[in-house]
Structure formats: structure tokens, C-alpha cells
Amino acid sequence: MLNNDRLLAQILLLALLGACLWVLAPFASTLFWAAVLAFASWPLMRLLTRWLKGNASLAAGLLTLGWMVLVAIPLVWLGFNIADQIREVNALLHNLQVSGLPAPPAWLGDIPLVGDNLLELWATVDEQGTALFAQLRPYVGQVGNWLLVRSARIGGGMLELALSLILVFFFYRDGPYLAAFAERMLARLIGHRAEHYLELVAGTIQRVVNGVIGTAAAQAVLAYIGFSIAGVPAALVLGLLTFGFSFVMVPPLVWGPAVGWLVWQGDYGMAVFLGIWGMFVISGVDNILKPYLISRGGNLPLVVVLLGVFGGILAFGFMGLFLGPTLLAVAYSLLSDWLVKEVPEAAKKEAILPRPEHHP
Question: Which site in 127, 286, 289, 355 is 20 to 30 Å from 209, CA atoms measured?
Fold first, then answer.
């Protein structure tokens, strides 16, 4: 006979769990990034704790302060630079509306086939500047609204990042207790396989972190080499910017303007070289190195890793870079365990077939 008291307790427990998830839902991405950051840098936490003779709270505070300095200073610098660029663009538009276009550059007419047409277009725009600006004003307003919306999203992202840097302190300090709690909870749900799945999730996230950081470092080095060969000034700074932009998978925002600057300087040969280098080397290495580093050392087939990385990004945004491979890894392991228990002949055949090796 059904135990009404136990059923009522289970319903209340599910309701309590749902209410807790509802409360935490606005902070889901913040908690996720704090957890990923703490997990990725956990070796530093262990080393610092050992240096401080086991004082985990002090180690967590120092490491969190270090992350705040490393992240906050570049963001403030980037914010001031964006504000300066916006002021310069507004001043340029005002000058163009008042005094028209400046004289065309000397190299514009020397462009083969289209040079004369470009000079005529330049003169036409200069003569009809006022009317052109009047026609473009509605579109400028739409672009301004679009930029305003994106700026609000960027501001919200900055707030989430700041909150993540605060929450990472608690993940550092209470990391061992949280791991033990997760293991006990999984043990109640799936029994002795809990440790296996925890190691699977931890290993997958660690490989994704290694893949993201390793790919970013490789793209930064390749970008620095390309900028140095092309003679672009501040090649080291641009290489560091490439390292940062590679995390959001948009390195062209760095090497693209560099190509435009070379064209503006009239150095067409180096502009072509840097464009090809950026497209096929700097950006192309992401499609090869990242899946390899993520799949290296794991039992997942490479195609599953690729589907997890790109499908996760399409489904969840940048968080999907970690969620996609992790979800597929857990699902693949669950199906493998089910096949071993339910279809032992298939498991034996799988054991006979050679596995693809992942070379370091």
C-alpha cells in the first residue's frame, strides 16, 4: 500500500528543490563561470594553500584578489579606450558634416581597375555630403539603438563577471566540501559509479579548459609572428589582445583592423600576407588544435568532441563550450555502461575492436 506520508515528503522535497532552482536561476551563468574558473585554477589554489601552511581562506582571498586585478585592470583600460574611440568617431562625423571629406589619399587613384571610379565616388560623396548625411540619419539612429542594446548586454556581462570573481572565493575556500557533497549526493542516486562520473565530468572540463587556454596561447603566438613579419606596430600588445579575443572566438577583430591599417598605409603585399595568415593560420588553428586538445587523453571519439564543442556553443552560447562536451561525455559513458549490462555481446565486440589512439 502506498505510504501517504512518504509521498507527501517527496512532493514537498521536490517543491523545495524547484523553489531553490528558481531562486538560483538568475545567477546560473555567474555560478557556472565561478565554478569553471575555480576548477581550472585549482592547482594554483593547492600550491598557494601549501605555501601558506594550510590556511585555505587566506589562499582563496589572495587568489581571488589576483583574479580581480588581472581581469579588472584590462576591462577598465578597454572601457576607457572604447569611450575615447566613441568620442573620436562622433567628432569625425561632426567634422565631415560641417566641412566635408578631406582630400583623397594619393594611393586611392593608383588602385588598378577601380582607382578612377573610387576618386569619382569620393568627389560625389564630398559634394553631396549634407544630403547623404540626411539620408543616412535614420539608419544611424538604428545603429545607435543597436549599439545601445549591445552596450547594455556588455554591461550586464561585466556585472556577471564581477559577481563571478566574488563567488569564486567561496568555491576556492569550500571546494573540498562541495566536491564531497556532490559525491555523496551522486552515490545516493547511482551508487558506486558516482566517483567514476565525477572523474569523467572533472576530466572533460579540465580538457576543455586546457584546449581553450592552449588554443588561445597558440593563436596569440601566431598572431605576434604575423604582426612582426608584416611590420605592424605594437605587435606584442596585439598578440595579447588576440589571446583575450580568442576566448570568445573572434581573433579577426584584432588582425582584421591590422590588415585595414596596412591597406591604408599602401603596403598591399603585407596586407595580403596578413589577411591570409590571419584567416588560415591564426583563425584556422582554432578548428584543429582545440578539438585535438579537448579529445586528448579521453575515451570520447573525436566526432563526439566536435559535436559537443560546436553544438554546445550553438545551443548554450559560450557556456556551451564546456557544457556540450561534458553532456555528451556523460551520455556516452551512460550508454556504454548500459550496453555492458544489457548487451554483453556488444561490449565484447567493442573490446575486440581497436580504439583510436590519442598521441600527446
Answer: 355
